[in-house]
UniProtKB/TrEMBL annotation:
Molecular function via GO: ubiquitin protein ligase activity; zinc ion binding
Pfam families: DUF5128
Name recorded for this polypeptide: 6-bladed beta-propeller
Keywords annotated in UniProt: Repeat
Coiled-coil features, chain-numbered ranges: none
Length: 353
């Protein structure tokens, strides 16, 4: 009799749980993460002005992504011994998405990149390269094949992972030496731009990872001074946060200087600690400033249109923000670094009021 019970516990129960999960869980499905918090009604500029940017919600870590386990999931965990790992945000910095439901945030203090599938409500982590663990991931982007690019400022490398989190290779290995890689951006044609802070330059690669040379073109405008972040618009023009010149510079795809946005100062339209940069569907330029605890929006002539945020911990407030990413639906994702969260907004263009 005891032998029969052991056989039941070791073989029959796990198979029964699998059958139950396949028959029950699959039918129920998982609702995608709602990207708007209905309890918060916040927009910029405030009434009676026409709103242009609306607050959607915050993501304070994987606990808000993965749905709570039901009894069946808890029973499965008890039998199999499998546990969900949940790593909280410490200092999220770089942030990027694949244009669909995937979102990744580089956390330099936690030494991981958190990757979320917002539709399937799943989380996985990038932390191990071919040569060892990540030391200080700061930049993140998705390449033309959906792979995740991660820059590590301490290891001085840029690493490529599959969408499922498998380590693939190191960008430019044996050919390119980085001093302190930071922001990463991918153009529509698949070209990859990586900021090298201490080299005061960007490194440019094609979609196959072949090194194309430094960027921008030598002698084109004032030299960069400790650049930190980069974005590319739909026309292929490149925007670089030039930190110690307190501006964002725009170049064409050939590296020719076009214009600058902002200047050093303490008023609207100026910068103190410019960080992340992004461009929306109407080619407005968004620049995060860690000192002002906001992001500012410029038109293509460099005119300030709007600034969003202030110091604080509430909705639409920041504490030393860093990275910014805008998806194809004009949703704006900002790494609110010292509040340990991601804040999500939406640009309200024509037809989105």
């Amino acid at each position: 009799m005891k032998a029969v019970l052991r056989l039941w516990s070791r073989r029959i129960i796990p198979w029964l749980l699998v059958v139950l999960c396949l028959s029950g869980c699959a039918g129920l499905g998982v609702e995608p993460l709602p990207l708007r918090d209905p309890s918060v009604d916040l927009a910029w500029p405030p009434p009676p002005n026409q709103p242009r940017v609306r607050f959607l919600r915050e993501i304070a870590g994987p606990g808000q992504i993965v749905p709570q386990q039901g009894r069946l999931g808890q029973l499965w965990q008890m039998v199999t011994g499998e546990e969900r790992v949940s790593i909280p945000f410490l200092t999220p910095y770089g942030i990027a998405g694949d244009g669909g439901s995937f979102l990744c945030a580089a956390d330099s203090s936690a030494r991981v990149v958190q990757c979320y599938d917002l539709n399937r409500r799943e989380v996985h982590y990038l932390y191990q390269t071919g040569g060892g663990p990540l030391a200080s991931p700061v930049g993140v982007a998705f390449d033309a094949d959906g792979n995740v690019l991660v820059s590590d400022s301490v290891n001085a490398g840029v690493y490529v992972f599959s969408p499922q989190g498998q380590y693939l290779r190191q960008l430019g290995e044996g050919e390119v030496t980085f001093q302190r890689p930071a922001g990463i951006a991918v153009a529509g044609n698949g070209d990859v731009y990586v900021v090298d802070v201490l080299a005061h330059k960007l490194k440019r690669f094609d979609r196959r990872g072949r090194y194309l040379g430094d960027f921008p073109r030598e002698g084109s405008g004032e030299p960069l001074s400790l650049p930190s972040n980069v974005a590319v618009d739909r026309a292929g023009d490149v925007y670089i946060t030039d930190s110690m010149n307190f501006t964002v510079k725009k170049y064409d795809r050939d590296g020719n200087y076009l214009r600058s946005f902002g200047e050093i100062g303490d008023g609207p339209g100026s910068f103190a600690r410019p960080r992340g940069v992004a461009v929306d569907s109407d080619l407005h330029v968004y620049v995060v400033d860690a000192t002002f605890d906001n992001f500012q929006i410029f038109d293509q002539d460099g005119k300030l249109l709007l600034f969003v945020g202030k110091h604080g911990r509430g909705p639409g407030e920041f504490y030393l923000p860093s990275g910014i990413y805008i998806d194809k639906q004009d949703r704006i994702f900002v790494a609110d670094t010292f509040n340990k969260r991601i804040l999500i907004f939406e640009y309200l263009g024509q037809g989105k009021q």
